[in-house]
Amino acid sequence: MQLRIPGPTPCPPETLQALSKQMINHRGDEFDKLLNSITTRLKQVFQTTEDVFLLTCSGTGGLEAAIVNTLSPGDNVLSVSNGVFGDRFAEIAQSYGAEVSRLDFEWGKPVEPEAVTKALKADKGIKAVLVTHNETSTGVTNNLREISARVKEFDKVLLVDAISSLSSIDLPVDSWHCDVVVTGSQKGWMIPPGLAMVSVSENAWQAYSQAKMPRFYLDFGKAKNYFEKGQTPWTPSISICYALDVALDLILSEGLANVFARHAKVAQTAREGVKSLELSLFPQEDCASNTVTAVNASDKINVSKLVQILRDEYDVVIAGGQAKLSGKIFRIGHLGLVYENDAKLVLEALSKALPKATSS
Amino acid sequence: MQLRIPGPTPCPPETLQALSKQMINHRGDEFDKLLNSITTRLKQVFQTTEDVFLLTCSGTGGLEAAIVNTLSPGDNVLSVSNGVFGDRFAEIAQSYGAEVSRLDFEWGKPVEPEAVTKALKADKGIKAVLVTHNETSTGVTNNLREISARVKEFDKVLLVDAISSLSSIDLPVDSWHCDVVVTGSQKGWMIPPGLAMVSVSENAWQAYSQAKMPRFYLDFGKAKNYFEKGQTPWTPSISICYALDVALDLILSEGLANVFARHAKVAQTAREGVKSLELSLFPQEDCASNTVTAVNASDKINVSKLVQILRDEYDVVIAGGQAKLSGKIFRIGHLGLVYENDAKLVLEALSKALPKATSS
C-alpha cells in the first residue's frame, strides 16, 4: 500500500522492527542511555543547542505544551494563521485563557511577514506569536525565517508548529531564533504517532518562569528536572523511542541536507505530475510545501469518490480537504520515507482514478 | 530478563509482533473498525456500558483528563490518599485550581471508608472525591467498592486512579458507580506505555457540562465527538492500538475471572516467598496488592545495591521505594504477563542476592 497522507507516514522495516523490542525499566540505566542518545541526535535535527524534550502525546499535545508553558491567562497573543492547524494553535491558546489577536491570511496564500510587523507595531501588548511553519491543511510552507526576523525585532516569544516540517524541511531552530518548536513522530520521522518532540530556548525558559497557565502532564520544568536524571517525568512511550533511535540514525546518516533535498525533489515531481494531469495546485506555487501537495478539485471531481477509488482499486491512500476545504481539494503527503518513484506511482494511480471520479 | 517492576511490564510475543504492523490512515475505515473493536472489548474489561476512550498519553495524562473534564477552578475536592500516586492525583487537581481537602492515611495502611464518610459529612461543599484503587508506591489495594458506596451516599463525583489495577484486579466500574476510571497500557494490559484508557459515566458527563477547567488535548467532549466518526480527535498511537487489539483477545479468551485469580495466586506466592526469606511485607497484609508486593528493607539491606545485583547478576529487574520510602522498601511487580513460575524465579534470585546486599 502507498500510504500518502500527510501523516501517519509509512515506516521503513528498520523502525517497524525496533518497535517490537521488549520493554525495559524507564527509570533504569538502559533507558537513561537511550534518552540521552536520542536527545543528542534530536538536537542535531532541530539544529539547536537548547533543550529538546520528548512528550508522550500527539503533535496537538505538543502545541498545548508550547502554550501552557510560556503564557498566562490574559496574555495577549498574536495568532498568525493561514489554515486549519494555525487556527487550532489559536484555539488552544484561547482555551487556556489567552487573549488572541488574529492575523489571518487567505488559505493557500503564505503568511506575509510585513503584515506581522504591522500587527506587532499596532499592538505593543502582544507577548507571543503563534506560527505554523508548514500548514498541512493547505500545502503551504510559510517563510518562517522572515517571520521570525520580524517577531524578534519586537522581542516577542515565538512558538512554532513545525509538526509536518521539522526533519523534512530546513528549520534551523537556533539561527532562526525560534523559542518553542513542536514536531510529531508520525510525520517526517518515519515512525508511528505517539511522541511529540519540542525544543525550548533560553528565552522560552524566561517566559516559563512567569507563565501561570495551569499544567502538569505537559510541564517543561518537570521534563527538564527528570531529564537531568536520564528520565522522563511520566512513563514514556518506550516503543516509539526505540523506533526514533533507529530513525535518527537513518536521517543523520543520509544527512540533513540530503533529506531536505530529497523532499524538495519528490515534491517537485508531485507538483509537476499534478499539473501534467491538467489539475491545478491549491496553494500559490512559490510557497507550495515540500511535504504535502494540495490539489484543486474542479466541480466535476468527486473528492471522496476519488480517495475511495485510489484506496480500493490502486492501493494508494491520499487525504481529502479539511474544514472549509472538504470536497474542494485533495492532498498527497510526501514526507519521511518517500522517493521519487513513490510520487510517480501515486501520480500514475491518480491518472487512472481521476476519470472514474469525474463527472462529464 | 525478568522485568518485575510495577510497569512497564513484559509484553508477550503476540503484542510485540503486533507493534510492527505498518501504519494506516487514522481517519480511514480500517482504523474505524480497529477503534470500535478495541472499545467494545475495553468496555468488557472495564465492566461498563458507559463511554470508554483511548488517550495518547501516560496514566498521569489520564489522571489529568479525569480532573480537567469534571471540575472547575475553585471546586472543593476530597483527596483520599495513602501513597505517592494518591498525592499526585491531588497535586494535579491543585495545579488546575481546585481547592483540595486532604484525607491522608498512613502509607502501607488502607483507606478507611468510615473516614471518607466523616469527611464528606463534615464538608458539604465537596464536589468530587479522588481515590487510588491500587497504590503502586506502597503495594496497597484500597477497598474501592466500600469507598465508592460511601462517596455515592453523598452523591459526589468519584474519580478513580486504577492505573495499576484495572485488567488485573476486579473493578466492575458500573456496579461500583465509578464516574471516571483511568488505567494505563503499560500495566496489566501486557502492552507498551503510550495509551491511557478512561471510562466516563453519565454522571461524569453531567459534571463535564459544568466543568470550566481549561482543556484541549485531553477534552472528553472532543473524544466523544470523534469517536462517533470512528476516530480520535488527534492522531492516536496506532502501534499501541494494534498491540491493545491483540492483548484484549488474550485477556478475554483467558477470561476476566481467571486473569484476576491468576494475579491473586501469583501475588500470594510472592508474599509467602518474601516472608519465607524472613522479610516482612510493607503493607498491612489484608490490603496487600495483587499486582505489586512492597517489602520492608531492614536497616542492614542496601536497597539500591540489591536492585543492582538482581539486575546485573540475576537478570531480574525490581523497583526500589519512591519518595519517603526510597531506600526503605523494594517492590516486586507481578501484573500482566506473569505466572507463578515468574514469581518463583524472582524469589530465588532474591534469596541469592539478599546476602550480598546485606551488611552484617
Descriptive account of the structure:
The structure is a homodimer of 360-residue chains. By secondary structure, chain A is an alpha/beta fold. The first copy, chain A, has two domains: 13-253, Type I PLP-dependent aspartate aminotransferase-like (Major domain) (Aspartate Aminotransferase, domain 2); 256-356, Aspartate Aminotransferase, domain 1. The first copy, chain A, is 42% helix and 16% strand. The first copy, chain A, has twelve helices and 14 strands. In chain A, helix 1 packs antiparallel against helix 9 (238-254), helix 9 crosses helix 10 (256-276) and helix 10 runs parallel beside helix 12 (340-356). The interface between A and B is large, with 54 and 54 residues.
